[in-house]
Write a structure and sequence with these properties.
With 150 residues, this protein is of the alpha+beta class. Helices cover 41% and strands 15% of the residues. The protein has two domains: 90 residues; 40 residues.
Length: 150
């Protein structure tokens, strides 16, 4: 099952919270967040709502001993994890679930994120290059670049 593989990959992400203050496991919060976002959640409150609605499903893969965390807790915990570690975890999970073969075409595409240019702070636009598996309709890798190029 793919979510069991996800839980294995999530375990590489370090939890820097003080253990005596932890009410919800990091793995539970990340499982909830990933499932909710894949299902269309667009904000922290949507993620919390998804969790409340799908708690029985989520308990098949995580503990959720204290139920679903509130949206403020989800936001705080997710904002404190290492983006690089999360990226590594997610990409490795995707690769584990969908191995590439000779029939797969990997498309490389670059995008400039809208509204990422900030003239007042002298910040240039953010440019991202993505690798996309056409067979699985899945982004298998993504990196930020310093400048746009062809």
């Amino acid at each position: 099952m793919e979510l069991k593989k996800l839980m294995e990959h999530i375990s590489i992400i370090p939890d820097y919270r003080q253990t005596w203050k932890v009410e919800h496991k990091l793995s539970d919060i990340l499982l909830l967040t990933i499932c909710a976002v894949i299902s269309g959640a667009e904000g922290w409150e949507d993620i919390e709502d998804f969790g409340e609605t799908h708690l029985d499903f989520l308990k098949q893969y995580g503990d959720f001993e204290n139920g679903i965390p509130v949206h403020d807790t989800i936001a705080r915990v997710v904002s404190c994890i290492s983006p690089a570690k999360f990226h590594e975890c997610f990409i490795n999970w995707m690769r584990d679930c969908h191995s590439s073969d000779d029939k797969d075409v990997i498309a490389i595409d670059g995008k400039t994120l809208r509204h990422s240019y900030d003239k007042s702070r002298r910040r240039g636009a953010i440019h991202v290059i993505s690798a996309f598996s056409t067979m699985h309709s899945l982004v298998i890798g993504q990196i930020k670049t310093d400048e746009k190029s062809n």
